[in-house]
Amino acid sequence: MEKLRVGLLFGGRSGEHEVSISSARAIAKALSADQNSHKYELLPIYIQKDGIWQGGEVAQQVLASGTPSTMLPSDSDGNLWQFPPQVTEVDVWYPIVHGPNGEDGTIQGLLKLMQVPCVGSGVLGSALAMDKIAMKMAFAQAGLPQVKYMALSRAQVWSNPCVFPKLCDEIEVTLGYPCFVKPANLGSSVGIAKVRSRSELEAALDNAASYDRRLIVEAGVVAREVECAVLGNDYPKASIVGEITYDSDFYDYETKYTEGRADLLIPAPLPANVASQIQEMALQAFTAVDAAGLTRVDFFYVEATGEVFINEVNTLPGFTATSMYPQLWAATGVPFPDLVDQLITLALERHSS
Predict the structure, then answer these.
(1) What average pLDDT does this structure show over 101-111?
(2) Which of 100, 134, 147, 199 is the most exposed, fewest CB within 10 Å of its CB?
(3) Which residues contact 120 (CB under 8 A, 6 or more apart)?
């Protein structure tokens, strides 16, 4: 049987470049596992931090070393559209480019133009899930419970001195403290701040506006943070539920990616009815944003009242051997190599439908 050539696309221009490399290394290992090695041929394609696509020896070296390319940035923007020759050989794309310019629909649109199957969500699902404001609007339309929030723009934050204080007044009245200020379109907790006072609110809004022109402010809630993984296309399935515990004030970037700062509890110690409710809501969220292939859905469980609030979906979650998404499926009975194989099969299915 002729092997299927998998274009493993990784790296990218976001702040999650290194995480993407780690995810790609784990997927490459899974593709070379005994049950997959006879089916797939790996074609690594690496996107440098300056946006240049590299195949062949450069991509292989980054994948082998686990460190970004040290090549000097290109002096020609035209090279951004000079794809390596290996691109024409790809039978199915496996993009694992986290963050902006990777999981926001931009890469997905480009790969769709190539008319080659692609693992994961398409343009709409990726874009909806990446933009927290659009995502919350989709959740509201689906009737999924959420914490109170306000959608803002950079123009409001960086407005004249008369308007900005009124905006802060409205946030204080509507949401109170503590609350969370977030850029709408950045992943991995980048630019997010937990604020407890007017001065912290003003500083956090200014900082978030420097990252994105769309912002969101959410009411704080005393809750446990639980997650569920979804796998499938038109008939998705939900994994068992996991929980994140950590010693920091909230699950920020440093906590997320510093070894020993956070623990994953799989399965989460939850009442059976609560776990079932979370699984059902995860499937509803998957459908609400028109996701495909894979999605990790994050929730708040308010133990004192029994309430469950959906927080967000991630259509291209971290995919290292220790990441929550593959661990949830491993605990549900789908080992890492089988999970990668299923995702490629789902990509082929979606493309042909």
Answers:
(1) 94
(2) 199
(3) 95, 103, 108, 126, 292, 293, 294, 315, 316, 343, 347
Over residues 195-234, the pLDDT tens digits come to: 999 999 999 999 999 999 999 999 999 999 999 999 999 9
pLDDT tens sequence across 22-36: 999 999 999 999 999
Query: The domain spanning residue 318 has which CATH number?
Result: 3.30.470.20
Query: How many domains does the chain divide into?
Result: 3
Give the list of residues 6+ apart from residue 35 with CB closer than 8 angstroms, or none: 337, 338, 341
140 and 170 part of one domain: no
Q: What whole-number distance in Å separates Cα of residue 14 and Cα of residue 2?
A: 35
- One domain for residues 273 and 135: yes
Dig out the tokens for 34 from the structure. 């005994």
**39, 134: one domain:** no
**CATH number for 197:** 3.30.1490.20
Pairing mode, if any, of strands 40-47 and 4-11? parallel
* Beta-bridge mates of residue 88: none
Residue 42 and residue 344 in contact, taking contact as beta carbons nearer than 8 Å:
no
Q: What gap in Å lies between CA 40 and CA 33, rounded to an integer? A: 10
| Cα dihedral: 225, 226, 232, 234 (round 10) | -80
224, amino acid identity: R
pLDDT above 60: residue 143? yes
Q: Any bridge partners for residue 309, and if so which?
A: 300
What gap in Å lies between CA 320 and CA 338, rounded to an integer?
14
Please name the residues in contact with 325: beta carbons below 8 A apart, sequence gap of 6 or more: 229, 294, 296, 317, 318, 319
